Amino acid sequence: MSQIHDEVQTQFGNSPEYYAASLVHGEGDTLAVIAEYAQPTGSERVLDIAAGTGFATFAVAPNVAHVTATDLTYEMLAKARELASERGISNVEFQVAAAESLPFASESFDIVTCRIAPHHFQNVPAFLSESHRVLRPSGLFCMIDTVCPESDRLIRWQNRVEELRDTSHVWAYPPSEWRKMIAKAGFNIERETQSKNAEIQFSWWTQRETKSEKLVKQIRSAFEELSESESAIYDVRREGDELYFAWPMYSVQARKTFR
């Protein structure tokens, strides 16, 4: 088990209720996008990687034959299983697994989905390679994640802010890097969308992960480093003492090809 995996398990294992109630993860246009990009016909077997408490799983499950939801953290999957039962979703199974080393046979799934998770992965190329391996010929890979603008300064700024707030954060890439890695893994990109995630309230965003008032102030002060045009990229707005913003998102639908 890597140090990054340990950080992820600690971070998310202690917080299943927080993520189950998270508007950032549970709302936003990206849920509809991933369900649309999957192009379900009712007969598919789907693998949802890093499913967390199951939001993407539940968006896809009603329109496919079966979903296997994996996550590195048992506690998150336990909460997802509870929510699936509450919602009457019965065509889902849950399994602990790392995105970079999937315990499934090659060509086992018609669709692989992954939403708002790869910035926590220790090895994104390995995740993409494994996704390609477990997909059947011409299978679909549908991914959504937080990305950075195509700016060296903002790539450094955004990843610094994310890591200050969340030690399990690894790296958020710009869309151009995602395109290169996805193509190198053996996929052909068919559709892509750049959008924003659901609006984030700063005080909510920092209330769980951050123990220190000093660190909260440090994160807040980082937003003061942004120029007016940079603030507009993140939809930064202020209401009294409260700060709101939204991270850029990249959604992609890619089809498995042969390398």
Molecular structure report:
- With 259 residues, the protein is α/β, with parallel strands linked by helices.
- The protein contains twelve helices and ten strands.
- It has a seven-stranded mixed beta sheet with strand order 3-2-1-4-5-10-6, sandwiched between helices. Strands 7-9-8 form a three-stranded antiparallel beta sheet.
- It starts with a helix and ends with a strand.
- The model has no long low-confidence stretch (mean pLDDT 90).
Which blocks of ≥5 consecutive residues have pLDDT under 50?
none
So what's the oligomer here?
single chain
DSSP strand tally: 10
**N- to C-terminal separation?**
29 Å
Which class best fits the helix and strand makeup?
Answer: alpha/beta
Please bin the fraction of helical residues.
Answer: 40-55%
Radius of gyration: 18 Å
Number of helices: 12
Strand order of the largest sheet: 3-2-1-4-5-10-6
The succession of helices and strands, N to C, reads HHHHEHEHEEHEHHEEHHHEEE
- The dominant shape is globular
Proportion of residues in β-strands: 15-25%
Largest sheet: 7 strands, mixed
Summarize this structure briefly.
This protein is α/β, with parallel strands linked by helices and 259 residues long. The chain is 41% helix and 24% strand. The longest helix is centred in the middle third of the chain and has 14 residues, at 152-165.
Using brief descriptors, characterize the structure shown.
single chain, 259 residues, alpha/beta, seven-stranded mixed sheet, 12 helices
Tell me the layout of helices and strands.
Blueprint: H1 3-13, H2 16-20, H3 23-26, H4 30-37, E1 45-48, H5 55-60, E2 66-71, H6 74-86, E3 92-96, E4 109-115, H7 124-134, E5 135-146, H8 152-165, H9 175-184, E6 187-196, E7 200-201, H10 202-207, H11 213-223, H12 228-233, E8 237-239, E9 242-245, E10 248-256
Parallel strand pairs: 1-2, 1-4, 2-3, 4-5
Antiparallel strand pairs: 5-10, 6-10, 7-9, 8-9
Helix pairs in contact: 8-11
